Every structure is written in structure tokens, then in C-alpha cells.
Amino acid sequence: MEQEGAESGGGTRAVSVPIGPAALDGDLRLPPDACGTVAFAHGSGSGRHSPRNRLVAEELSRAGFATLLLDLLTATEEREDLRTGRLRFDIGLLGDRMLHALDWLARDPDTADLDVGLFGASTGAAAALVAAAARPPTVRAVVSRGGRPDLAGAALREVVAPTLLIVGGDDTPVIEMNRDAMRAMECEHHLEIVPGATHLFEEPGALETVARLARDWFGHHLPAPDLPARG
Hints:
The structure is a single chain. This protein has helices at 51-62, 75-84, 91-107, 123-134, 172-182, 206-221; strands at 11-19, 22-30, 37-41, 66-70, 116-121, 139-145, 163-168, 189-194. It contains 6 helices and 8 strands; from the N terminus they run E-E-E-H-E-H-H-E-H-E-E-H-E-H. By secondary structure, it is of the alpha/beta class. The protein has one domain (11-220): 3-Layer(aba) Sandwich (Rossmann fold). A hairpin with a 2-residue loop joins strand 1 (11-19) and strand 2 (22-30).
């Protein structure tokens, strides 16, 4: 099932990713001659309308990447999660939803031939890593923003995609959680600490720094010849 917006062959279109009898709503943005696709894994009660992830997606789009912003919970599940806060920490469920997204991207004519990267925020970072571990030929790179990669558990050792972990310099507990996760990772990985930033990167310029770091990481690991490689 899929709904197309007024724009096609470029621009943004609304999409629907089937998950059994239900579906997940998303927005797929396709710049001309896209050089890769980045799918976003939201977490901690967020979704495709997250202003922070949309800012990152805008930067990636300007760099030539298609972006898929997808709600990982159905409307019914979101209402339950608002009451209980339980599903946002169900990494198995969220990781499975990312696998459905990867399958959908592989079937869609606009994205089927594009290499894929994953961008995860908060608990969504663990979901992205679980999906990357399950689909090593498909996922070429992962970026985590203020993420909880430690929640990916045993899947961390199975990740082969180069992974960038971005954490705010003032987000001390999450820095330590990311360092714990790094000790279990065998793939190429790097921890980037943004000085003076807190968990949500709300400080002036902090989120823009995240967007540039993500752009450069995906630019290095996905086909994007117009972008400089990271040093």
C-alpha cells in the first residue's frame, strides 16, 4: 500500500509501509539524482514529524540523499505508548519495523537501486543497529544522535556497517552508555562528542553540527562523490 503526494519523481510523497494487517505512515523525500537513501529510526515517543530529525533530513536532502521519515508505531500503538511509555523501549519491535522499512525501500522503484544508511535517535538508534545487524548487505552506514546503542544488546557484535555515534558533551550518562556499546562493537565506529550540547541538542548550532556530521559520514560511506571524505 502506498499513497503518493502531488509530487513524484522528485519532491516529497506520503508513503505507507505494510506491517501485516496494519501500516506505518511515512514521508519519502527524493532529490533529483539521489545518491543514496537514509531511513530514520525515531525513538522515545517521537515520530516522522520530529523537528530535530527533519532538520537533519533537510541537510541530507541538500547533499543529494533521499530520506525516509517513518512512524515506527501505528496510531493505536502511539496512543498506548503515550499512556504507558512501554513501546518506545521495545527494541525488538522497533528493530522489526525498521526491517519492514528496508524491505519497502528495496521494492520501491525510486529507491530500490540506492544504497541505504540508517539514522537513529534515542531508542531508535538501538532499533537501527538491530536492523543493520540483521541486514549487513543492505545497510551501508549508521548514525546515532543522542542514542542508546547499548539497548541493541547482542546485535552490536553483528553490525558490520560503519557507525557514527554522536552525543552531546553535557549528556554525561549517555556518553558512558555509548562507550559501553562501543566496547561490544567490532565494526568501524567513531564517537563524536559535540561540546556544550545536551541530550536534545537544543543549544544554538548544536543540531546543525549533528546534521553536518551525519551528512559527511553518509557521504563517505554511501555513493556521494560531491562530498568530501571525513579525515
